[in-house]
Write a structure and sequence with these properties.
alpha/beta, Rossmann fold, elongated, binds nicotinamide-adenine-dinucleotide
Length: about 450
């Protein structure tokens, strides 16, 4: 009965959708539901996000303000103050951060806080969906007990599901509406309701038999990436020692139409997902006394990359200018963790800067998408530094230019012409005639 009522409200676009956490995942999701005809309540502990949305601004580079402002104006997307509006929502979707601690253990504090806020307003007939990436068992073992503490039961009085987010910020081919969505729940009603809800905004919903399977799907996808990136990073080091260009190898290998998928080396892993998510599974595996050897090894190989790049830069500087890192002026090109985005979370560029400065180098950076280094917990000392202008004169004044991110909007021909030494971790100068000495790292 409760399930039928909600099903009808979803079918008629009369269900009110609450999104908890309006970040990289939550904001595009809120927009997708609002554009599909629902009224969406947006909740976030950061008051700046509400203020921006109310002022018709977007705080994410790849989400155009022009697509958000009309939704806010028409009352389809409502930036809520506080959490009092949770009770009015028919479905609440949780998109809050799931970081790891310094010792690489899961930090579920945001999910727990959110769960307590929802539990305080929970009423019969509501659907709660967790989207935050996490280890198998979180929906059932962490979220459910908090929500059920007030006496309502999942699958009976309210509905509970997990649906992993596959958003790839900045990807122009695949946005929220192009990517199939996996949904898992421990009972039939919850699964059907979550399926029906997401079917209004994605091309295909893929139901799996329970929440922990859906949680495992997401981790499997990201561990696949982490392990393959580690593999190609290892191959880079081996081929470098053999005098073989790993980039040329990959270009040729990927012409095989089956059985090979191209992954590319880099200065280390970045972003909010790939460097973090795998450790959610290795933590859970440890709790079950199972080894997660591949996951740990991939982490080790990928974490060693910034150190290798700095060593390579030091050697190149020594060979080309007879200089050491101490006192050398280095320009790091690209601060974001991947090309064409402004997201610096977990960016290996920070690790590169810190390592170079620890060795006495004087480091500046240029990034067209990151004019100022945002404050972060891990790299607090770098906050407030500003991107320097990229002119021929400036480039020529550095002992070395280190390409950490290959943004499309950078004039690489100017770099190749003006710099003295370029250490290129992204093959950004491929095919460009250079007067600078170019070292791939
Ligand atoms: N960014 C991605 O590309 C991506 C892709 C797939 C999955 N994920 C996963 O999605 C989840 C969210 O990631 P994100 O990148 O959107 O993070 P984010 O930091 O961009 O956004 C999270 C938002 O949640 C808000 N928040 C924190 N605590 C809150 C609370 N108690 N109540 C309400 N709001 C709260 C924060 O202020 C922030 O605005 C994570 O689990 C992440 O692993 C992210």
């Amino acid at each position: 009965m409760l399930a039928d009522t909600l099903m009808n409200r979803i079918a008629g676009r009369r269900a009110r959708i609450g999104i908890m956490g309006l970040g990289y995942v939550g904001l595009p999701l809120a927009r997708a539901f609002a554009e599909a005809g629902f009224t969406v309540s947006g909740f976030d502990t950061d008051p700046g996000k509400r203020a921006a949305l109310l002022a018709g601004r977007s705080y994410l580079k790849h989400i155009a303000a022009a697509t958000l402002a009309p939704l806010v104006e028409q009352g389809r997307l409502v930036p809520e103050e506080g959490f009092a509006g949770l009770g009015a929502c028919d479905a609440v979707i949780i998109c809050v951060p799931t970081p790891i601690t310094r010792t690489r253990d899961p930090d579920l504090s945001f999910v727990e806080q959110t769960a307590h806020a929802i539990a305080g307003a929970l009423r019969p007939g509501q659907l709660v969906v967790l989207e935050s990436t996490t280890y198998p068992g979180t929906t059932d073992e962490v979220l459910r007990p908090i929500l059920e503490a007030g006496g309502l039961q999942a699958g009976q009085d309210f509905f509970l599901a997990f649906s992993p987010e596959r958003e790839d910020p900045g990807n122009e081919t695949y946005g929220t509406r192009d990517i199939p969505k996996v949904v898992g729940a421990d009972d039939g009603d919850s699964r059907r309701l979550a399926e029906a809800l997401y079917a209004t905004i994605v091309p295909r919903v893929v139901p799996v038999s329970n929440a922990r399977t859906a949680e495992a799907v997401k981790l499997t996808e990201n561990i696949f990436r982490s392990v393959n990136i580690a593999l190609v990073n290892e191959l880079k080091v081996i081929y470098d020692a053999l005098g073989i260009d790993v980039w040329e190898v990959i270009e040729a290998a990927k012409t095989k139409p089956f059985g090979f998928m191209a992954f590319y080396p880099g200065p280390g892993l970045g972003g909010h997902c790939i460097p973090i998510d795998p450790f959610y599974l290795s933590w859970k595996a440890r709790a079950h006394e199972v080894e997660a050897a591949f996951i740990e090894l991939a982490g080790e190989v990928n974490r060693a990359m910034p150190g290798r790049v700095v060593a390579k830069l030091a050697d190149a500087l020594n060979e080309s200018a007879g200089k050491g890192l101490k006192g050398a002026r280095v320009l790091v090109l690209g601060l974001a963790y991947k090309k064409n985005v402004d997201d610096t979370r977990e960016s290996p560029a920070f690790a590169l800067i810190e390592r170079l400065e620890a060795k006495g180098a004087l480091v500046d950076y240029h990034d067209p998408h990151v004019p100022v280094v945002p404050p972060t917990r891990e790299h607090a000392a770098l906050a407030g530094r500003r991107s320097v202008a990229l002119t021929g004169e400036a480039l020529a004044s550095y002992d070395a230019v280190l390409i950490a991110t290959d943004h499309a909007g950078v004039d690489y021909a100017l770099v190749a012409r003006s710099a003295r030494l370029v250490v290129d971790t992204r093959n950004a100068l491929a095919g460009i005639a250079a007067t600078a000495r170019v070292v791939k790292a």
